[in-house]
Amino acid sequence: MEIITSHLNADFDAFASMIAAKRLYPEAQLVFPGSQEKKVRDFISAFNPVDIKRIKDVDLSNVTKLVIVDTKIPNRIGLFEKLLSNKKIKVHIYDHHPFSKGDIRGEVEKIERVGATATIFTEILKSRRLHPTPMEATILALGIYEETGCLLFPSTTERDLSAVSYLLRRGTNLNIVSSFLKMELSMEELDILNELIRSSKEMVVDGVRIKIAKASCEGYVGDAAHLAHRMMEIEDIDAVIVMLDMEGKILIVGRSKVPELDVSKVMLEFGGGGHPTAASATIKEASLEVVEERLTGLINNNVKPSKVASDIMTRPVVNIKWESSIRDAEAMMTRYGVNVLPVVKEEKFVGLISREVVEKALYHGFSKSKAIEFSTTDAITVNKYTPIREIETMMIERNQRFMPVVEDRKIIGAITRTDLLRTLYEEFLRRRKIEETVTKEKPPLGRSLSSWLKERFPSEIYSLLKLSGEVAEELGFNAYLIGGSVRDLLRGEENLDIDIVVEGDGISFAKVFGKKLNAKVRTHHRFGTAQVVTDKLKLDVATARTEYYESPGALPKVETSSIKKDLYRRDFTINTLAVKLNPRDFGLLLDFFGGQRDLREKSIRVLHNISFVEDPTRAFRAVRFSERFGFKISKHTENLIKSAIEMNLFDRLSGSRLYEELLLSFNETEPVKTLKKLSDYGLLKVIHPNLVFNDELEEILKSMHDTLSWFNLLFLEEKTDSGILYLMALLSGLKDEDVKAVLERLSPPPRMREMIITSMTQARAMLGKLPVNDPVEIYNMLSSIKLETLLFMMALTEDSQKKKAISRYLTELRKIRTIMKGDDLKRAGIKPGPVYSKILKELLEEKLKGRLKFREDEERFVMSKAKQQQ
Question: What is the reported pLDDT for 69?
Answer without folding.
Answer: 94
